[in-house]
């Protein structure tokens, strides 16, 4: 049996199936990237709910695997060299799983780097900006009398949607005909912006053509539908 005792997180969230990839997450836009990816590539895994509301990401056990204190994180019992391997940061996990399985990341070097470019675009721009807009539009930030931050993030989110709209012109997916980790990385954030954050009208989402069609195609994928609810919330 695989021994995960070297990882303190496994003592707080014990593995019932230590021979499977251990996923420590919550169904947020960053969290569902990895559950969707695992569903897409078909690797066996065991999800563990990390309750942000209970500050579980700041426990010593979680921080021992992810010092950034954010979801998600994984342990692969069959990592490089056949040894258990822990990894955090959703973008890095997507690349790792793609390379491990040979799926959702083009083998051609130019296409590979172009795909990574769009993954990094999500990580450096779409995620942070949409998240801040959600804070100022739906959460505590909406109570701020100064609306300049809200306007700043609204304008930037609209700009980023415009970048995606242009990229998707004549394309089914961000890389064209091929669904890749770039789409996996970005779908959850656009879904949250117009759904959970209730910001569709704020960013004039209905004025777009390509992004809504891409989002609809992505959400229709069985792996996406499944991954959006993993780990199940208690």
Automatic annotation (TrEMBL):
Which Gene3D superfamilies would you find in this protein's record?
A: 1.20.1050.10, Glutaredoxin (3.40.30.10)
Looking up InterPro entries in the UniProt record yields:
Glutathione-S-Trfase_C-like, Glutathione-S-Trfase_C_sf, Glutathione_S-Trfase, Glutathione_S-Trfase_N, GST_C, Thioredoxin-like_sf
Q: Does the keyword DNA damage apply?
A: no
Q: Which residues form the GST N-terminal domain?
A: 18-105
Q: Which domain of life is it from?
A: Bacteria
All residue ranges annotated as the GST C-terminal domain in the record: 108-234
Q: Which UniProt keywords apply?
A: Transferase
- Which GO terms fall under molecular function for this chain's record? transferase activity
Keyword Transferase, does the record have it?
yes
**Record-stated family:** Belongs to the GST superfamily.
**Protein name as catalogued:** Glutathione S-transferase
Supply the source organism for this entry. Answer: Caulobacter zeae
């Amino acid at each position: 049996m695989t021994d995960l005792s070297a990882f303190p997180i496994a003592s707080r969230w014990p593995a019932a199936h230590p021979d499977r990839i251990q996923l420590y997450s919550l169904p947020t836009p960053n969290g569902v990237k990895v559950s969707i990816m695992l569903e897409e590539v078909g690797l066996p895994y065991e999800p563990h709910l990390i309750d942000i509301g209970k500050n579980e990401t700041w426990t010593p056990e979680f921080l021992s695997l992810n010092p950034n204190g954010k979801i998600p994180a994984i342990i692969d019992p069959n990592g490089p060299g056949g040894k258990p391997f822990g990894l955090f940061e959703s973008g890095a996990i997507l690349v790792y799983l793609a390379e491990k399985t040979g799926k959702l990341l083009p083998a051609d070097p130019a296409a590979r780097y172009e795909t990574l470019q769009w993954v990094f675009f999500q990580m450096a721009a779409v995620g942070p900006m949409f998240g801040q807009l959600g804070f100022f539009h739906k959460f505590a930030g909406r109570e701020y009398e100064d609306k300049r931050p809200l306007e700043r993030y609204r304008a930037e989110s609209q700009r980023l949607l415009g970048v995606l709209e242009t990229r998707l012109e004549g394309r089914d997916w961000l890389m064209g005909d091929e669904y890749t980790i770039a789409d996996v990385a970005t779908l959850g954030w656009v879904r949250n912006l117009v759904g959970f954050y209730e910001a569709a009208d704020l960013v004039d989402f209905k004025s777009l053509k390509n992004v809504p069609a891409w989002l609809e195609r992505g959400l229709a994928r069985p792996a996406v539908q499944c991954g959006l609810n993993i780990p199940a919330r208690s």
